[in-house]
Amino acid sequence: MALTVVLAVLAAFFVRLVDIQVVNADDHVADSLDKALAGSQPLYGTRGSIVDESGQTLAGSILLYDCQLSPLLITQIDADIANGTSEAEPWSQVSTEIASITGSTPEDVQAIVSTALAEDASSQYAKLGSGLSTEQFRALADLDAPYLACFSHPARTYPDGAVAGNLIGFVGSDGEPLEGIESMEDSCLAATDGSLSYQKGKDGVIIPGTEREVPAVDGGTLQLTINRDLNWYLQQLIAEQTQDMGAQSGSILVVETKTGKIRAAAEYPTVDPNNVDGAGPNDRSSRIFRATFEPGSTFKTLTAATVMDAAGQNPLSTVVASGRETFANGARVNDAFGHPAYTYTLAGVLMDSSNAGISKFSERADVPTRQKYLENFGIGAGTAVGFPGEAKGDLPPLDRDNQTIYNTAYGQGLTTTMAELAGAYAAIGNDGLRMPLSLIESCTKADGTVVTPDLPDPVQVVSADTAAKTREILESVFLQSGVSKPLLDAGYRVGGKTGTGEKPDPATGGYKNGVYYTTMIGLAPIEDPEFVVVATLDEPLKVKSSAANATAFQKAVAQVLKTYRVLPSTTAPTLLPKFG
């Protein structure tokens, strides 16, 4: 009989157990979860790295930690210690250790907990600190304090400081991209955060089996076309030249002629993305892409190429020009120095940088033709780079007025950018074919997918023969001026042109008195150009002409050729005649 009773009781328990755990399990789980506390925390994805052409990191992400305390658990453990039921270290001692790790004082750490308890005696959260380093996190973890929890999140770091800072840009304290490539390529670099949600009991302990995770997706790796070491060297170089000449700013741009890839873009002053506040507001981006200027005599090269390609001229074609010429439409053009009427060759006009001479040559191509060639050279169109806030040169109708027809032949009355000008000269170096400029090599997504930029088609601006003749002229320009001598001594033939552009004065509507924007641009090696190098200075004071740029330009060209192991020239240069 007793056995029957026992079996009946066990059967009843069994039936009830099946009812609870099987038949009505969902209802009971729902009831328990209703009484549980919901919790969640973000799972941060890592923002992608920015690397140079060889994979060297220019921008990356590190982990920082936000740490919190449970004031309620602290009071409970201290109570257990007082009751003799716990051998844990008391809060007074642990808070001292925490303070030494976080760089605070024990009193400040203890105040975090006491303030939270004063507001809510059951408080399970008090913020200890944010942005703690990995070393601090590890030291805190070694304390093995059950009421201390830390959660990681990514933060941005720039290991080379200001190197290419003008291009890379920076992100805000909240991780949002604010400038440069960080902003321009955010679609590649940005991570997608995930989340971890769970249920926890009143004691704050997570209920097993309630965790639900949405994984984070890391950002992609962005590879640039620039060379980190070359950019570093050129930044030091242009900083020294800018300061030596008392200029407001300076820049050096290097473009590979056959690809349009930008290999260096150095500027001074610039920004260290690790310390944005250390740079002035005007120094936190790239003047190479955002600043426009009157190019001055560097435009004579484009005019010479135009009249050779469209009007049958050649380097030995001649004009008669004095130091001051008045044209049939009333326009007047002066040279930088007075001289009687010379019978100039086209090469000689560029060698003497004669405004009057190039203006006379420009008449041999009609105005619509000249306008079209400048457009094809990329003047006024910006570039394919798409840099944030990138400016475009101002190319007006060349026949806007009688003076503009001639002024534009020698780079006055219009504006361009360093990038536009470099692209135009690169076309001359690349047998007349202008390649779109690029700064981005590729984006490798987190899943391994590689995305390359969608660039416009190249433009054949002038014929290969015209480009070769233009390069012959440019070599004679540098030979005659002596700019190429240090490079020739090193075994390299180079060619190029200088420009001293006037600066507009907003106050008067005219030009500033006695200050200029100076440019030196060249191709190397000139017999088969691989690179365009441009060096500019804004308002140099020690030397106010483009001669101020010579040292920086020469050293920059030498370093570019050394970096890319370009073989010395095997043929001798030829100096074209200046006069016919």
UniProtKB/TrEMBL annotation:
Coiled-coil regions, chain positions: none
DNA repair in keyword set: no
Localization annotation: Membrane
Alphabetical keyword list: Membrane
InterPro entries found in the cross-reference section: Beta-lactam/transpept (IPR050515), Beta-lactam/transpept-like (IPR012338), PBP_dimer (IPR005311), PBP_dimer_sf (IPR036138), PCN-bd_Tpept (IPR001460)
All copies of domain Penicillin-binding protein dimerisation, residue ranges: 44-187
Penicillin-binding protein transpeptidase domain sequence ranges: 250-553
Protein family according to the UniProt entry: Belongs to the transpeptidase family.
Record-given protein name: Penicillin-binding protein 2
Record organism: Microbacterium aoyamense
